[in-house]
Design brief:
The protein contains one helix and 28 strands. It is mostly beta strands. The strands form six sheets. Strands 1, 2, 22, 23, 24 and 25 form a six-stranded mixed β-sheet that branches. It has a five-stranded antiparallel β-sheet with strand order 12-13-14-15-17, with no helix packed on it. 51% of the residues are buried. The N terminus is likely disordered. Pfam families: PD40 (PF07676), PhoX (PF05787).
Length: 394
């Protein structure tokens, strides 16, 4: 083991020990400012202003922001010999000394898996490599406080795989987290659980309670139980058979709440936000009060045209802003502010046969990574992964 790898292992061991010991002060590299999001967001003027004309990459951005192409499916990543995967999907960023790493899933079946791109402190690409192989239709996932990536299979009886963004340790299948059509995961270091979405028209919202925090090899899978309304209180009930066979996990618990096409999932500040594509909603769970409500619903927009349609992946920043990517719509990433204003942050022109996936911020919050899954071709082999740099508020 060389010095760089040894330092990486030591860093991960120290962080893991802190997390297992109950420290939850830092998650994702920033501290979260208390966010409101108390009512369904309405269109308004966003914090970054109007979108400019499309740049050379076909991306409309606010003033002060620039973009570059990081990788293209089927082509070698600049400065490396690694060929980027098809259909790039969910992603996350990890601090790597003075640089960082962006990981990205591949939503193809078979083969799937995930890859990573490593950056220096100046943003120069220094390497790219595979971190997960031999899986199926890896859609979204989630980042853990102990610096692993949870890659989720969006297939019937799919698994969660825990992977190493540095590519040093082999990926590990986590069957205790349930077998269903997994979409995204969000880790809550305060309650020491993992929230999981299910991409079915009658999907459920789950949480996994590990036997030992920081170790996902065993634990209890639970499902959210609530009424049929769009707001109210909820409880959690244990799933009797997490393997989902012969009875699917979503039909095992009477009274569990149905969600129409679970997609992205994000945790911060004692809240979980998740999206449902079937009804174009962003939901919010308040984990302190055990209540849920709508953070956005296009059918509840009271004036003008709903700016966000085809809700998909979701992430956030230390300022309390949520960034939601569109699957379809007009290929935008929209921002929802803590005062419940929603506005486009960027738009990709000329790629109507694609979807935006994998939004994730660099550890210092100055760069946003995401992909156009099918690019200009409309095919999984045409994926493009981008970086946007600019004055994101912190």
């Amino acid at each position: 083991m060389d010095a760089r790898v040894n330092a990486h292992v030591e860093r991960r061991t120290l962080l893991r020990a802190a997390v297992i010991g109950g420290s939850a002060a830092v998650f994702g590299g920033t501290l979260w400012r208390g966010a409101a999001h108390a009512a369904p967001a309405q269109p308004g003027t966003g914090p970054y202003g109007a979108l400019a004309a499309p740049n050379a990459n076909g991306i409309r951005l606010p003033a002060g922001f620039t973009s570059r192409v990081i990788a293209r499916s089927g082509q070698t990543v600049t400065g490396t010999s690694y060929t980027w995967h098809n259909a790039p999907d969910g992603g996350a960023c990890y601090a790597d000394g003075t640089g960082w790493i962006y990981v990205s899933n591949s939503e193809i079946n078979p083969s799937g898996g995930a890859s990573a791109v490593r950056f220096s402190s100046t943003g120069t690409i220094t390497s790219a490599y595979r971190i997960l192989s031999g899986t199926r239709q890896n859609c979204a996932g989630g980042q853990t406080p102990w610096n692993t990536w949870l890659s989720c299979e969006e297939v019937s009886l799919g698994y969660v795989y825990e992977t190493d963004p540095w590519g040093t340790s082999a990926a590990v299948q986590r069957p205790a987290m349930g077998r269903f059509k997994h979409e995204a995961a969000a880790v809550d270091p305060v309650r020491q659980v993992v929230y999981l979405t299910e991409d079915e028209t009658n999907g459920r919202l789950y949480r996994f309670v590990p036997t030992t925090w920081g170790n996902l090899s065993s634990g209890t899978l639970q499902v959210l139980v609530a009424g049929t309304a769009t707001s109210g209180s909820y409880t959690w009930t244990t799933i009797p058979d997490p393997d989902g066979s012969p009875t699917t996990t979503r039909t095992q618990v009477s009274g569990s709440k149905s969600f129409n096409g679970g997609e992205g999932c994000y945790y911060a500040d004692d809240k979980v936000w998740f999206t449902t594509k079937g009804d174009n909603r962003v939901w919010q769970l308040n984990l302190l009060t055990n209540t849920y409500e709508l953070a956005y619903d296009d059918s509840l927009v009271t004036s003008g045209t709903a700016p966000l349609t085809g809700v998909d992946n979701i992430t956030g920043t230390s300022s309390g802003d949520l960034f939601v990517a569109e699957d379809g719509g007009n290929m935008e990433i929209c921002v929802i502010t803590p005062d419940d204003v929603i506005a486009p942050f960027l738009r990709i022109d000329g790629q109507s046969g694609s979807e935006i996936t994998g939004p994730a911020f660099s550890p210092n919050g100055s760069r946003l990574y995401f992909s156009s899954q099918r690019g200009t071709s409309g095919s999984s082999s045409g994926g493009i992964t981008y970086e946007v740099t600019g004055p994101f508020r912190s």
